[in-house]
Amino acid sequence: MGIDQRLAVIVHGGAGWVMWVLIGLSVIAVSIILERTVSLMASRDDVRSMKEDLLAYLAQGDPTGAIERLEGSSSVEARVLIAGLGCADKGPAAAEERMASTSQLAKLSMEKNLSFLATVGSNAPFVGLLGTVIGIIRAFQALDAAHGQVSSHLMAEVGEALIATAMGLLVALPAIAFYNLFTRIIGSRLARADALGREVLAYMKTER
């Protein structure tokens, strides 16, 4: 089958299949949004209280107590601090590397499937535009078949073309919005983990 024949088949099929593609993308995107929301909410903690408790334990020279306090938290900040305090006997350099490694692994875990959201947000409008192009081509074909007379079939094709564009935007906008929101949350958590990690390193350097 030549290229012209393949294009003819695509156009003949109408923009309906484009709608189904967009619906499928939206379902997957919503699933990812809900999963990431639940995951990020489950791993949040009161960082201010955590910092106060951490500094209190370190001021008393009790890193073991600090670790026990942090083990009660499921937050990223706690995991990073535990990694650093767990190798306090090996020196600040080793603790810093361990915390950096834990932070990177946590980042990868929190960013799970976010690239799909970014891809949907960036490309869904173009998928909708493809449906619009197909609808316009079919509208011209209907206009030609009607010898230039406006018919209900022509209006249906034009309406389908416009709906494809609108649907592409409706799929893209939430995906981009939640991608930006999740990225901001992840960045903030990693920044807080880094700031608390500096407190741990400062304690270790003072002790040594």
Automatic annotation (TrEMBL):
<keyword id="KW-0812">Transmembrane</keyword>
<keyword id="KW-0653">Protein transport</keyword>
<protein>
    <submittedName>
        <fullName>MotA/TolQ/ExbB proton channel family protein</fullName>
    </submittedName>
</protein>
<keyword id="KW-1003">Cell membrane</keyword>
<dbReference type="InterPro" id="IPR050790">
    <property type="entry name" value="ExbB/TolQ_transport"/>
</dbReference>
<keyword id="KW-0813">Transport</keyword>
<dbReference type="Pfam" id="PF01618">
    <property type="entry name" value="MotA_ExbB"/>
</dbReference>
<feature type="transmembrane region" description="Helical">
    <location>
        <begin position="161"/>
        <end position="182"/>
    </location>
</feature>
<feature type="transmembrane region" description="Helical">
    <location>
        <begin position="15"/>
        <end position="34"/>
    </location>
</feature>
<dbReference type="InterPro" id="IPR002898">
    <property type="entry name" value="MotA_ExbB_proton_chnl"/>
</dbReference>
<feature type="transmembrane region" description="Helical">
    <location>
        <begin position="114"/>
        <end position="141"/>
    </location>
</feature>
<comment type="similarity">
    <text>Belongs to the exbB/tolQ family.</text>
</comment>
<feature type="domain" description="MotA/TolQ/ExbB proton channel">
    <location>
        <begin position="75"/>
        <end position="190"/>
    </location>
</feature>
<keyword id="KW-0472">Membrane</keyword>
<keyword id="KW-1133">Transmembrane helix</keyword>
